[in-house]
Amino acid sequence: MLDLTTVVVVSLAVFAGAFVSGLAGFAFSAVAGTVLLHIFPAQEAVPLMMVCSVVIQAINLWGLRQSIHWSGSIPLIVGGFFGVQIAVYLLQTIDTHFLRLCFGALVALYAAYMLFRPGIAWASAGAADKYTAALIGCGGGLVGGLTAMPGAVPTIWCDIRGVSKEGQRGLVQPFIATMQVFAIALLLGQQSFSPKIAVDLVVSVPAMLAGVTLGIAAFRHVDDSAFRKIILVMLLLSGGALVFV
């Protein structure tokens, strides 16, 4: 059993991660993992974060169901499946540490640049063709398999195209949710979950539900400009975490 101090710290970490995920649509592991990976061994913390992420994504999908655009997300998802397979191959054949560092640095640099140059207009948010979306999804799946950040590439793509906050969440949220379900299925095929994870999950549920609920409520009250800044800050922090953590 966990002692009271550990329960409080875990709950705060999960709440913070869930709130950010409810608000921005991603980055639960980037936020909560900075604490959980110091409390639990990786073989316990990583599955816990994956399960929490899947639950949070399900709540996000339900809470934002009127904005979800499944038909537009299908090309992203199809491409993502291929990208994950490439990532699995790379994980087994090469040292991916350098790839993670490079991707983290690129994401952080992009986010920092766009935060300091918020007035740049890259492109209009017209309808993207399905082949481009599939290519972006493949990149997201590849990066997600290597870094546990499947939403970074589609999120940057939406930012470059100037997609509204509802449009971005509607496209990217189903992609992230599907990739995370796929990842946890792969994990289950390789190892079984420790009974400790069930205890950790029970402890995390109240904070997780409270955090994601408040995060979704906050999302509904921010305008597109504020949401874009939030996304860029999350990308900056997530990219920085890949480089320095």
Describe, in plain words, how this protein is organized in 3D.
Helices cover 82% and strands 0% of the residues. The protein has helices spanning 4-24, 28-39, 42-63, 70-93, 97-116, 130-147, 152-161, 165-190, 195-221, 224-244. The longest helix is centred in the last third of the chain and has 27 residues, at 195-221. The protein is globular, with a radius of gyration of 17 Å.
What is the residue-averaged pLDDT? 86
What is the helix tally?
A: 10
Give the beta-strand count: 0
SSE succession: HHHHHHHHHH
What portion of the residues fall into strands of 2 or more residues? under 5%
Please indicate the count of domains. Answer: 1
Low-confidence stretches: none
**Structural class, judged by helices and strands?**
mainly alpha
What's the quick description here?
With 245 residues, the protein is an all-alpha fold. It has helices at 4-24, 28-39, 42-63, 70-93, 97-116, 130-147, 152-161, 165-190, 195-221, 224-244.
Question: What attributes characterize this protein structure?
Answer:
245 residues, mainly alpha, 0% strand
How are the secondary structure elements laid out?
Elements: H1 4-24, H2 28-39, H3 42-63, H4 70-93, H5 97-116, H6 130-147, H7 152-161, H8 165-190, H9 195-221, H10 224-244
